[in-house]
Design goal:
Layout lengths: L1 H17 L3 E5 L7 E6 L5 E5 L2 E5 L7 E3 L8 E4 L5 E4 L8 E4 L20 E4 L5 E7 L2 E8 L4 E17 L5 E9 L2 E8 L7 E2 L10 E3 L6 E5 L4 E5 L7 E2 L13 E8 L5 E9 L2 E9 L7 E8 L3 E7 L5 E6 L2 E5 L7 H15 L2 E3 L6 E5 L8 E6 L4 E2 L8 E3 L6 E8 L4 E8 L1
Antiparallel strand pairs: 1-26, 2-3, 3-4, 4-5, 6-7, 7-8, 9-10, 10-11, 11-12, 12-13, 13-14, 14-15, 16-17, 17-18, 18-19, 20-21, 21-22, 22-23, 24-25, 25-26, 27-28, 28-31, 29-30, 29-32, 32-33
Length: 426
């Protein structure tokens, strides 16, 4: 028991000291904002800003920028390592540009002469593209197939949409205000790839400004004057308002939610701006329990650094784009990792009962995981918060002889919980 408590306290101290967002790429000269970021693997990612498309192949350590196309680029969407689109409004050509070779070249799709004012866009793995365009009192949903080469038609809705998100080829959601079949709703959904759209049973209780579905079943969003966070656990049908207190004693209406991103159904981030006197203060918060509790990360945007987008490649490795600063990265969740440990203690003892031995170890380490029926994944980080290329397997001896001596932390994830285990390589 003493060792177990010491282990928790030691992890608490180590991770609080390492939990941080680090600036890895400053804004390009003359362009104050990076707008959107997306990774197609642990190491390969893309970012867009005005007149530039950036790519990294080493998890953000270095970035190369393509300036061959000019435009107000603020959205990027990839469906695999090779195929993706960038939107919107190139100086020449159509509203989007397309790559089919992992960003080596970008070209304008061959589509008939149509033009849209794009509020949001979604590229599906089938090659279909959904575009939402708001006009006075109405919403236009444009449908384009074959990777933006065949205009299929436009649907007219009464209302407006702020965001569109598909969790699969068939299942998609729109947030805004909709009047369908004499029923008003903030969220409408489709289960047939957009052939039909139905309102949620929550009607006007739900997100109207932004929506994010990390799984087909569980989704999050924000709205109602930027002050509320919503959650659905039944495919967008019923939405419940999450309790939160980001304002630390301030009037909640002084706190605006500017971005919501979830890596999975439990782990997510919220970017906020808070009015303090005559100033606006920006910060990022993190949840690891599906929005039940939130903790401040160590990112402090002050009164100038505005968060535009967040994307994670795993539960701890995340990237963030900003205005007036650049691209940030965290290798340990960017937040109070002690919350992860504290929330996992009960399941750690009663369910997982995992152990690493010997600890310290020299050449090999055994991971004891009694429950054979549970699937787990294990990721390992060094004391600097950097991911280590180490394939650890449960209930077997693992070769660690090539690792440098020092302290390591393994993130063990099951379908129920994530815990962190410290071990020493001699």
């Amino acid at each position: 028991m003493k060792y177990f408590i010491f282990n928790i306290l030691f992890l608490f101290q180590i991770h609080c000291s390492l939990a941080q967002w680090n600036l890895i790429e400053e804004n390009a000269i003359g362009f104050p904002c990076y707008h959107d970021i997306e990774f197609v693997s642990d190491s390969v990612g893309y970012v867009v800003t005005y007149n530039l498309i950036g790519k990294t192949e080493n998890a953000g350590s270095t970035w190369s920028f393509d300036s061959t196309k000019s435009g107000f680029f603020d959205l990027i969407d990839f469906i695999n390592a090779d195929t993706g689109i960038v939107c919107c409004y190139p100086v020449d050509g159509t509203e989007i540009i397309l790559t089919i070779d992992g960003g080596s070249t970008w070209s304008f799709p061959d589509i008939e002469d149509v033009s849209f004012y794009i509020d949001d866009i979604e590229l599906l793995t089938s090659g279909k593209i959904k575009i939402i365009e708001s006009i006075p009192d109405n919403l236009l949903l444009h449908n384009i197939t074959d990777f933006y080469t065949d205009y299929e038609g436009t649907e007219l809705f009464s209302g407006y949409a702020s965001d569109i998100d598909f969790s699969s080829v068939d299942t998609g959601y729109m947030a805004g205000f909709f009047d369908i079949d004499f029923s008003s709703s903030n969220v409408i959904r489709t289960y047939d790839g957009g052939l039909t759209w139905i309102p949620s049973d929550s009607e006007l209780n739900g997100p109207d400004l932004g929506i994010c579905f990390p799984t087909s079943q569980v989704g999050y969003g924000y709205g109602d004057g930027l002050t509320q966070i919503w959650k659905s656990e039944d495919y967008g049908n019923i939405w419940e308002l999450l309790e939160w207190d980001f304002s630390q004693g301030l009037d909640p209406h002084d706190v605006d939610i500017t971005n919501v991103y979830f890596y999975n159904s439990e782990v997510g981030f919220v970017a906020t701006s808070t009015e303090i006197g005559d100033d606006v203060h920006f910060e990022v918060l993190r949840t690891i329990d599906g929005g039940m509790t939130w903790d401040s990360t160590d990112f402090d945007g002050g009164t100038e650094i505005y968060v535009t987008d967040i994307f994670c490649t795993d539960q701890l490795t995340c990237y963030m784009t900003t205005c007036n600063s650049g691209i940030y990265k965290t290798s340990n969740g960017g937040g109070n990792i002690d919350t992860t440990i504290i929330n996992s203690i009960g399941q750690f003892n009663s369910d997982l009962r995992i152990s690493f031995f010997p600890n310290p170890a020299s050449n090999s380490i055994f991971i004891n995981f009694p429950n054979e029926n549970k699937q787990i994944s294990i990721k390992t980080f060094n004391s600097f918060g950097e991911r280590v290329n180490l394939d650890l397997q449960k209930n077997s001896y693992n070769d660690i002889s090539q690792l440098p001596s020092g302290m390591y932390i393994s993130e063990v994830t099951t379908e129920l919980v994530t815990i962190l285990e410290k071990w020493i390589k001699l």
